[in-house]
Amino acid sequence: MNFIAMFFRPTFKRIIRNQSTEQFSGLPYIYAFLSCLICLWYGMPVVSPDIILVATVNSIGAVFQLIYIIIYITYADKAKKLKMSGLLIAVSALFLTVVFLSMTFFDSHERQTFVGYLSVISLISMFASPLFIIKLVIKTSSVEFMPFYLSLSTFLMSLSFSTYGVFKSDPFIYVPNGIGTILGLVQLVLYTYYSNTIGEDQEPLTNAHA
């Protein structure tokens, strides 16, 4: 359940401006793209009735994540370009496999459970991806490596869908998004603390390897 993609991130503005991915990692966008696809499928009426909002939001998220990935591949060096292209193909193949298996081997109730567990795994993986950034922020006492808008949108998105999941009595929605809410809040607290401590006023970056 991802509307993080609704923000055109400063990271990609910089990539386009410099025509280089520098040391930015493309992996978070691969994780987010897979999560959007799985959650989109979970929200489809053929899998889960009465939660079409989940499918709608994640279809938009998947489009934005795909755009981010294409931009990244366009400006990446040869090695990263090949790696990211391979990962994009692998994620697409994995999603098609999930759709095929869920439609072929499961009835309606089992299908929802099967895809629901997969959506939980994909969401927790996506929310956990910034953990290495949190460790780096504490180690360096710098928020340079923590994108503020990513943290803010993670918190708001997770909180919104946690509430929605509780309203719908759907643990496959409120459990992973509850975890995402906590992780997003931790990132915001750290960002505020270290920004005030060292008075940084700079564009946050995500410096890692694809």
UniProtKB/TrEMBL annotation:
<protein>
    <recommendedName>
        <fullName>Bidirectional sugar transporter SWEET</fullName>
    </recommendedName>
</protein>
<feature type="transmembrane region" description="Helical">
    <location>
        <begin position="26"/>
        <end position="45"/>
    </location>
</feature>
<feature type="transmembrane region" description="Helical">
    <location>
        <begin position="173"/>
        <end position="194"/>
    </location>
</feature>
<keyword id="KW-1133">Transmembrane helix</keyword>
<dbReference type="InterPro" id="IPR047664">
    <property type="entry name" value="SWEET"/>
</dbReference>
<feature type="transmembrane region" description="Helical">
    <location>
        <begin position="146"/>
        <end position="167"/>
    </location>
</feature>
<dbReference type="Pfam" id="PF03083">
    <property type="entry name" value="MtN3_slv"/>
</dbReference>
<dbReference type="GO" id="GO:0051260">
    <property type="term" value="P:protein homooligomerization"/>
</dbReference>
<dbReference type="GO" id="GO:0016020">
    <property type="term" value="C:membrane"/>
</dbReference>
<feature type="transmembrane region" description="Helical">
    <location>
        <begin position="51"/>
        <end position="75"/>
    </location>
</feature>
<feature type="transmembrane region" description="Helical">
    <location>
        <begin position="87"/>
        <end position="108"/>
    </location>
</feature>
<keyword id="KW-0472">Membrane</keyword>
<dbReference type="GO" id="GO:0012505">
    <property type="term" value="C:endomembrane system"/>
</dbReference>
<keyword id="KW-0813">Transport</keyword>
<keyword id="KW-0677">Repeat</keyword>
<comment type="similarity">
    <text>Belongs to the SWEET sugar transporter family.</text>
</comment>
<feature type="transmembrane region" description="Helical">
    <location>
        <begin position="114"/>
        <end position="134"/>
    </location>
</feature>
<dbReference type="GO" id="GO:0051119">
    <property type="term" value="F:sugar transmembrane transporter activity"/>
</dbReference>
<dbReference type="InterPro" id="IPR004316">
    <property type="entry name" value="SWEET_rpt"/>
</dbReference>
<keyword id="KW-0762">Sugar transport</keyword>
<keyword id="KW-0812">Transmembrane</keyword>
